[in-house]
Structure formats: C-alpha cells, structure tokens
Fold:
Amino acid sequence: MSFGLSRGRTLDVSGFGLGRDDLPDESAGPVDPRRWFDCPDRPFELEIGSGKGTFLVQQCGLQPDTNFLGIEWTGEFYRYGADRLRRNGCTNARMLHENAVEFIGHRVPDGVCDVIHLYFSDPWPKSRHHKRRVVQDATLKQFHRVLKPSGLVHIVTDHPDLWTWTQEHVLRATALFERLPFTPPPSARDGEVIGTNFERKYRREGRPFHAMTLRRI
Ligand SMILES: C[S@@+](CC[C@H](N)C(=O)[O-])C[C@H]1O[C@@H](n2cnc3c(N)ncnc32)[C@H](O)[C@@H]1O
Structure:
C-alpha cells in the first residue's frame, strides 16, 4: 500500500508516534498513557483502529484541551497517521502501534479514559474469525474498567452483522453500560455520522450506517 506517498518519502513519526518497542516490558505493569502528553491532567480520549488518523486530525483541533491517543496495529497506517499528526501540528494527539484490545486489557490502568472511540471496526465476517472482533464480552468489561465514571464509548459501523453482534453484546452488559443515542461530533461534516475515511468511502457506495453511545454505569 502506498497511501499516495511519493516514492522514497520517509514518514516522520517523531514525537507523535509510539512504537511497540517504546513501551516498557509487560512485567513493568500498567502504563498510564496520559503521561505521554505535555499536559497529562487533561481529559483523555482513546481511539481504537485509527486507520489514517482522520478522526484524530479533525477532532483534536476542535478539542485543544483534550489529549487523544489513536491505537493502530497496522504498521503502515500507524506511521501514516503519526506523520499526519506531526504535519498538522496536533500536539494533543499521539498514535500507538499496538493491538488496542491487548493494550487496553493488559496495560491501561483503571479509570483513566473519558471517551473510547471505535469507528468502522474490522467486521471479520467469517464465524471462525469472530473472536478477532474488538467487541467481545471481555472487551466491554475492560472498557468499563479503564473509563472514568460516566465515561463514554462511541461505536459506528456500516456492517449489519457486526451491528447485530455489537447490540447483542451490549444487551449482556446492561450492568456496565447504559445505551444512549449517538450524536455526531463537531468534526463531522453536514450529514455525516462521524466523518472518517471509511465513512466517506462507504457513503459513496450508498451503505447505511449504525451508531450508538454507551455511558459507563
Ligand atoms: C476498517 S478500518 C477503519 C479505520 C478508521 N477508523 C476509519 O473509520 O476510517 C479498521 C482499522 O482498525 C485497525 N484495527 C483493527 N483491529 C485493531 C486492534 N485490535 N488494535 C488496533 N487497531 C486495530 C485496522 O488495522 C484498521 O486500520
């Protein structure tokens, strides 16, 4: 994949990207990602599967007093997103090259996140791959653990089967989360749900979208 880069151009993630090797060894215990920012006491929002970083670039300028961490496991997207944050001067955003489910489940301390964003998560349509979907009973428990009281989870998908799967999991988690209607963020353009790359691509194909917000109980 070239992402439209000119041949030979080097992506510069300096200061805006954290690779797997930048994390202390797991034996060191939890890692507080808020400390990766100049002002660690600000509200902290986490995006799972940031892709090319469109949501982060759009939203972090509108919320300059919030810190954003995008977690992306595909190396080329991670590097593209971190370089894009650097080019756009997004000093309140970082990209982490990691499996978000493992990072949240094993490294993030309790009660540090204000909001978790999950947009157009990979649907893994084959039954034998469903275990790779981000939304699982165990993941919702981990979201609940790392969120602050009344913290939010925003979920958007175009995929009907993944939507059904997500609703079923949320129904089993009513002790953890209250379901609310989804409100598009200020960065979404008129008529958009969230305004990520995948939404814009799928919108051109005429696909319908599904969205929900969960509030931590
Ligand atoms: C379909 S793309 C959507 C990208 C972006 N959110 C958007 O809406 O344009 C899903 C992205 O999530 C990433 N991803 C999937 N599972 C992940 C995980 N467990 N941890 C980190 N990234 C993940 C994929 O590499 C991919 O870039």
Summary: The first strand starts at residue 17 and ends at 18. Helices lie at 54-60, 75-87, 100-106, 137-146, 160-171, 197-204.
